[in-house]
Design brief:
single chain, 96 residues, alpha+beta, two-stranded parallel sheet, 2 strands
Length: 96
């Protein structure tokens, strides 16, 4: 199902992305080379123009515990230890 603007033309979400003002904390996994590679995540993230936005790739080269994959960034013990606390802190900081 397509979403349409008021004039019945398809809505181009990319044109609306810069208007989103809520801060975004986006994460990517260096080892995710198929579903959500870091470069694709960055390309999706860039149109959101809020200066408070943060993009973070988790990887061994950034001093992290793992070159996470798509699933490991969500369900691994390492992710629970080092990634999810940063997500929680971000939400707590920006939920005020």
């Amino acid at each position: 199902m397509d979403t349409f603007a008021a004039d019945d033309a398809p809505l181009d979400y990319r044109q609306q992305m810069p208007k989103i003002t809520i801060p975004i904390y986006a994460i990517s996994a260096k080892g995710d080379n198929f579903i959500s590679p870091t470069r694709g995540c960055q390309l999706f993230f860039e149109p959101f123009k809020n200066p408070a936005n943060i993009f973070r790739e988790y990887s061994l080269s950034h001093g992290d515990l793992d070159d996470y994959t798509h699933s490991r960034i969500m369900i691994s013990r390492n992710a629970a230890h080092e990634i999810w606390p940063t997500v929680t802190a971000w939400i707590e900081q920006h939920a005020r």
